[in-house]
C-alpha cells in the first residue's frame, strides 16, 4: 500500500467519525466536507462558524487561547498538523510582521480550500504531506507544532513518526502541543464505552505513560497535561 493511500485512509477514518468521507470533486459530495461548506454558504455563514454554531463542534478559540497562545511570541513560527477547514488556524493567524503559520494537510481538496480561505494572509503557507510522514520544513525553524483532533485517529507508530518529526523541526525550547484520548481518565474510558460498533475503528486510546514514553524518547520533556472534553492536551518542550 502506498503512503498516499495510507494517508487518505487516515483522513477518511477521521472524517467518518463525523459521518464524512474524502472524495473527488466529481463524486457525490453529500457525505464529504464540501457538504458543510455548501450548508454554511446557504445560510450566509463562514464554514467554521457553521461547524461550531450549528453543528456544535467544540469552540476552537478556547483551545488556542488556553493551550497555544500563551507560548507565542513576536516572530513565532507555528506549524499545524491536520488543520482541516482552518477552524483552529484562524486563531493562529500571524499577529506580527515576522510571524508565520504553516498548515500541513493530506487532503488536496482541503489544501485548495485552505489556500483560498487564507488567501489574504501572505504569511500563511499551506503544505502537502510528503509520503513518509515527514514535513517539508527545515530543521529547528519552528517555535510551536500544534495538532487538534488528528492524533486521536492514529496508531501509536504513526504518532511516533510525527513526534520525531516535530522534534526535528522545532527550535530548542520549542513546544509540541497535541491531544489524545487518555484511558487513565474517566472521560476517556466513558468515551470508549459509549462509541457504537459502527465507529469502533475511528479512535485510538492510550495511557499517559505510553504517550510520554515516545515523546521522552524523542528528547522532549513534559510542560503540562490538561483534560479537555473527551481528551487530554499535552505540551512537550524540546530539550
Describe the structure.
By secondary structure, this protein is α/β, with parallel strands linked by helices. It has one domain: Rossmann fold, CATH 3.40.50. The chain has eight helices and eight strands. Strands 1, 2, 3, 4, 5, 6, 7 and 8 form an eight-stranded mixed β-sheet that branches. The longest helix is centred in the first third of the chain and has 14 residues, at 3-16. The chain is globular and about 45 Å long.
Write the layout of secondary structure elements.
Blueprint: H1 3-16, H2 34-42, H3 47-53, H4 60-67, E1 77-81, E2 100-105, H5 108-117, E3 124-128, E4 142-147, H6 156-169, E5 170-182, H7 186-194, E6 205-206, H8 208-218, E7 220-228, E8 231-238
Parallel strand pairs: 1-2, 1-4, 2-3, 4-5, 5-6
Antiparallel strand pairs: 5-8, 7-8
